Amino acid sequence: MSVKAKKHLGQHFLKDETIAEKIANTLTENGYDHVLEIGPGMGILTKYLLDKKITTSVIEIDEESVDFLKARFLKLSQRIIFDDFLKIDVSKIYSGKPFAIIGNFPYNISSQIIFKTLKNKDQIPELSGMFQKEVAKRIASKEGSKIYGIISVLTQAFYDVEYLFTVPPSVFNPPPKVDSGVIRLIRKKNYILNVDESLFFKVVKTAFNQRRKTMRNSLKSLHLSDKLREDVIFAKRPEQLSVQEFLVLTQNIAEDVN
Hints:
Blueprint: E1 13-14, H1 17-24, E2 34-38, H2 46-49, E3 55-60, H3 63-72, E4 80-82, E5 100-104, H4 110-119, E6 126-132, H5 133-140, H6 150-158, E7 159-167, E8 172-173, E9 180-187, H7 197-208, H8 215-218, H9 226-229, H10 243-257
Parallel strand pairs: 2-3, 2-5, 3-4, 5-6
Antiparallel strand pairs: 1-8, 6-9, 7-9
């Protein structure tokens, strides 16, 4: 018995046991007792997670995969959530207790998984998983890089991001057309921003929506004072600003507006 990969769900089943075990072992198991695997498919990663001391649950949107997992892992059957991670209320999964996220994430929703993690960062101290390599590199990239952008800044404001290793297409069935990359996010000890979080998100998104322009032009829609816009930071392009500079800029904008 096996599960047929479904294109509309972005399924590419990992078939390499060594890589599956390696991904499972990226978890630090520090600061949480539970891990939620997103999109377990046929459970190649799941079986290594079940060997750990932490309690593993999985969330799967594919009914065929759910039936397969129930038959294969009897002790997991009560912890299989048949639902869409992007739609579920995360706070109800572990009654507000902290948990890690792991998975071979479907390419078509991987960025959305990151943004949902950021939204629930109080409960998620760690995330480890496989993305399309280009996306993984973007999340981990630093200022000055051409691929540094919204998801880089917002993720790194709350988490320390580490690009761990690259995975070739040949270890999947069916093989994707691109390489994959495994990254780990560990929430910062001081992850509570000292600025208005919604304004910070707005500033970052507004800046990168016109990334080829200087900050002076990309932030025009915020109607900032001429005095503030004279700051040297406004002569830079968004990809030249570090996360810390975006935080300082947000604070200055808050004071300017008030």
